[in-house]
Each structure stands twice: as structure tokens, then as C-alpha cells.
Amino acid sequence: MSLALLYGLAGIVLVAMGLYAALVARHVLRRLLGLNVLGAGVFMMLVALASRAVDSAGRPDPVPHAMVLTGIVVAVSATALALALLRRMHRHDGSAQLPEDRAP
Amino acid sequence: MAAEVHALDLVLVVLLVWLGWRALASADLFKAVVQFIVFGLLLSLAWVRLGAPDVALAEAAIGAGLAGALLLDTLARLGRDGAADETRPLGLTPARAGIALACLGLAGLLVASVLLLPESWRGLTGPALQQLGNSGVSNPVTATLLNYRGWDTLLEVGVLLLAVLGLWILDVEPPLPPPAPDPMLGLLLRILLPLAVVVAGYLLWVGAHAPGGAFQGAALLAAGGVLWHLARPLSLPATAPVRAAVVLGFAVFLGVGVAMAAFGGGFLSFPPAWAGALILLIETAAMLSIAVIMLGLFVGGRTGKAGE
What is the dihedral of CA B255, B287, B198, B69, to 10 degrees? Predict the structure, then answer.
């Protein structure tokens, strides 16, 4: 089993877990954690598959690395905005769950 | 580059999957967030193992550090009842079985597609490394970010700008009670803040030929700012200087791109003789902007002065 396959499969497990949590969880913070784990899984798949394309000096493909670097920064800024929206919702409604999830 | 699998990799993968699951399924959200931070730190080890030290630096500073600080801050603001959740937040109920099946199905499809891919593959390694001499830098990841795929990075800086603008639009948050003065934190700040500034400058410069660059440097600066905010609460109202700092990176990037389009080459295509200097200019502006934006995302529009 190669390094790319091992980490690629781990990335898939993270994607499935993160997606399930993002869809199922009630608390918005937990949904955001789910989306972040989902993103980490996608990044892991990209970097793992990039490690297959190695040149003679042993350097892996830099293009997916740059994409993941971009992705990490975008993910944290989107998370920050989502957290600010969550805090605002909690301040106004007193609940950290989306309206359709709240107990009547 | 170690292509063979070591015992370390197996341990790392098992730990990552387990911590990832605990970060999602822990009933106590505080525990979940802490496990998410540890997950991010281990993830940066995985990036090192996969030969991506640039990504590892960014993950350790941004993915684990800054994201963790943001999550903990929100958790503190939600208070005890706001942070309470079900005892089995991800427990399987009949209503959730369909979602679980769909996620398993997606995982199955992904596994099948990964197994179908060839073991070795040329990718874009060849072209990316061949053109390195014309890119102005010798770190292939920096060359990709700032030269080959400058469009992506320009738009990424744009996304960051939009995120902080979105935060400023939201209404003012009541300030948290001021923390008790902590002499240790003040001492730590006096040592770590200058160190963070020096290392950020080093990372910016060294990014041209070794792992590092604007994003990693900006993350370090922002982390220093967060530490400062924790020791002595800062306010970062959207005054003219702050607005200018936030826009600077995007404006310089776009300005250089437009200048290149006007004087030949085409949008964001740098002539080889100038590429190194132009990339350094863009990266310096981007680093300052991204650091202020990330600090703004943490300190937020909570000061009561912004947006009035």
C-alpha cells in the first residue's frame, strides 16, 4: 500500500464523517466543525494524490499544494464569518440551532 | 521523499480519523473544539509526511491556531446554555439512517475512483518545475500561487476581504468582561510578539526559495495580534487606516495585474526579469493585509465604534 493510497483513503473517511456531521448535527457550531473536517478530508485527498506525481529529485506536484494552501485560508475566513453569524443569531434568538431544528 | 509507508503513517492516520470523529461526536462542544485543534496539529504532521511543508506551516498556524482561537471565542460568547447540545449529537436514528447511507455511498464512490487512478502519474510536476526559471522564484509552490495561478490567489485575497467586510456589517457585539491581568501573558507577549514579527518577515523572504510565503507569515503576525488581544484587549474599528490596510493586498495585486495587462504580457503574466521583484511586492502587501484581516476576523466589529 502506497503513502498516497493510505492518506487518500483516510481523507475519504474524513469527508464522509464531516459530511454526515454537517448534515445531521443540530448545533450550528458542530455543523461548522463538520464542514471543517470535510474540508480537511478534501485537502488530504488532494495532497495525497499529488504525492504520486514525483519528479526525479523527489519533489511532488506543487499545483495541488498551492490549491490546498488557498483552501485552508478560504476555509478559515468562511468559518470566521459563519461563527459571527452564529453569534448574532444566538444574541437575537437565544438559540444556537437553526430555526427548523428548534424544539417547538 | 519517503514514498514507503512507515509505522508512523499508520499511527498518524488512525489518530487523525479517531480525533476527527471525536471532534464531531463529543457531546461537550468544548471538548470537541479542543479535539479539533489537536486534529489540526496532527494534520500538519501528515502534510510533512506527504512532502508538503508549505501546507504544513499554513495548517499549523491557520487551521489549528487561528481557527481554534475563533471557535473557542465563539463558544465562550455562547455561554453555558448556548453551548449545550444533545447527549448523542450524531447518534443514529431512523431519520438519520438515509443521510448515513448517502455519506457511505459517497465514500464508496470516492474509494472506487481513487483505486482506479494509476499508481504513478506525471501530473503537472514537469511543466511547473520546467518553467521555474522564468517564474522569478525557486519555490514551486510560491511560483504556482503567485505566478502560474495568480488568478486563484488574487480571488482568494478577495474572499478574505469579503469575509471581513461581512463581519463588519453585522451589528456590534457586547464586549466580553475584561480578563484578569495575567503577568505571565504580558511577559510572554513581550517576548513572542517581536519574535512573531521577525519570523513573519523571514518567512515572507524565504518563501521565494524554501517553504514559507505571505500566507504563513500573515498567519504568524495574526497569531501575535491574537495573543496581544488576549493579554490587553485591542480594538480594531473600521477607521480609514484599518480599511486601507485591509484593502492594500487586493489593491496592489490587482494593480500589478492591470499594469501587466497595460504594458504587454497580459493580466497577471509577469516578464521573467521582473517577476521576482513583482512577486515580492505583491506578497509584502498581501501579508500585511491578510494579517490585519485575520486579526479583524478575531477581534471583530465588537468594539462598538465600528459601523456606527
Answer: 170
* ipTM surpassing 0.85: yes
pLDDT of residue B308: 34
B189 neighbors B257 (Cβ within 8 angstroms): no
Is a pLDDT exceeding 60 seen at residue B305?
A: no
Q: Give per-residue pLDDT as tens, B86-125.
A: 888 888 888 889 999 999 999 999 999 998 888 777 778 8
The residue ranking higher by pLDDT, A8 or B172, is A8
Which A residues 46-75 touch B at CB under 8 Å? 47-55, 58-70, 72-75
Partner-chain residue, chosen from B17, B163, B173, that has the shortest CB–CB distance to A87: B173
Give the span between the Cα atoms of B184 and B215, in whole angstroms.
29
CATH of domain B1-117: 1.20.120.1200
pTM: 0.90
Buried b (16+ CB within 10 A) or exposed e, B132-169: beebbbebbbbbbbbbbbbebbbebbeebbebbbbbbe
**Closest partner CB to A47 (pick from B47, B121, B124):** B47
Which structural domain, as residue segments, surrounds residue A60? 3-101
Could you tell me the residue ranges of all domains in chain B?
1-117, 137-308
d(CA B302, CA A70): 27
Strands (E) in B56-129, as ranges, are: none
How near does any CA of chain A get to the CA of B78, in Å? 7
How many structural domains compose chain A? 1
Q: How far apart are CA B196 and CA B202, in angstroms?
A: 10
